């Protein structure tokens, strides 16, 4: 099958959506498909094109303004490019990318079915920020795109349920398929036991204090220390401009705590770094998936997730993670109880590793995504026949 992914993409980015797309593209290529990524908005550096080609994936950049004439295929570049790529399916990655309007129009004209991955961009908690602006965009631009799609891809069951409840209607081809998370080889392994007296929690990602719940994490660590548990919080990531002031305020507010800012870590070094700690902590106020969560699971690191994370319910059902309430004081109580049973934590970590292998391996996800595409193509063909 010939597959073209379209969206914002930067090779080597720490952004979760970019990582998810790259992992999926590689998995599809390994499964025997012909895969290309169309980056919308800017051209691709020649070095990145060459690096992707070495993995069998074609990178194409479309230098275009996001808003000016966003519904048009200026100079026919897009139609020529898609005619050259000849995709069996066009996969639009993420939401609120105005140029998707032009891509969808050209795809319909060329008879190419398209599907959409939301990547959490339409979750109610995400829509809450700048709600009026986002809803206006939905009604004027995005809603029609979704109605014309052959299928919608959801990363979690909760994402699907929320979408149907708040915005979109079900399509026969719609599917829930997890992100691909494949570890490097050789894979570092977790140390095998927790230090119950001085547990170290680690969290990776951009320093979006409110979204990622870093303030809640710090408050939880403070509550544990007040209980006599010498907990520590370690962060790997970056403030990335707009989060710098909030990060400075966080460090001042919790100056009494051992909060270590280690900066960005990536590649194989990321897995080795995570394996050093007692727990991977995701205290997000909302979280669709969390690539770093499953990367930690690859190494067998015990997982601690807030109850608002989409993966909290399935991982708790599998007894593969500790799920904590959004109140930091209550979360500290839950963790203190678990720390009293360190052997149970080690067994739980192994179940987390097994859950990742079952649901997020390249082979499993590529197979499910192919079935999704086939259903979407069948539905689009039936609709075309009328």
Mean pLDDT: 95
In total, how many domains does the architecture comprise? 2
Helix run count? 16
Helix content: 40-55%
Estimated share of beta-strand residues: 15-25%
Describe the largest sheet.
Answer: 7 strands, parallel
Shape: globular
Ends distance: 25 Å
Output the CATH class name of the largest domain: Alpha Beta
- Computed CA radius of gyration, to the nearest angstrom: 22 Å
Instruction: Note the run of SSEs as H and E.
Output: EHEHEHEHEHHEHEEHHEHEHEHEHEHHH
Strand order of the largest sheet: 3-2-1-4-5-6-7
CATH superfamily of the largest domain: Glycogen Phosphorylase B
Unreliable stretches (pLDDT < 50, length at least 5) are none
CATH topology of the largest domain: Rossmann fold
What is the name of the CATH architecture of the largest domain?
3-Layer(aba) Sandwich
What would you note in describing this structure?
This protein is α/β, with parallel strands linked by helices and 386 residues long. It has 2 domains: 2-180 and 361-385, Rossmann fold (3-Layer(aba) Sandwich), CATH 3.40.50.2000; 200-360, Glycogen Phosphorylase B (Rossmann fold). It is built from 16 helices and 13 strands. It has helices spanning 16-30, 46-54, 77-85, 100-110, 124-128, 131-148, 157-166, 209-212, 214-226, 244-253, 268-274, 291-298, 312-317, 328-339, 342-360, 362-385, and strands spanning 2-7, 34-40, 57-62, 89-93, 114-117, 151-154, 175-176, 200-204, 232-236, 259-261, 279-282, 303-306, 322-324. Strands 3-2-1-4-5-6-7 form a 7-stranded parallel beta sheet, with helices on both faces. A 6-stranded parallel beta sheet has the order 10-9-8-11-12-13, sandwiched between helices.
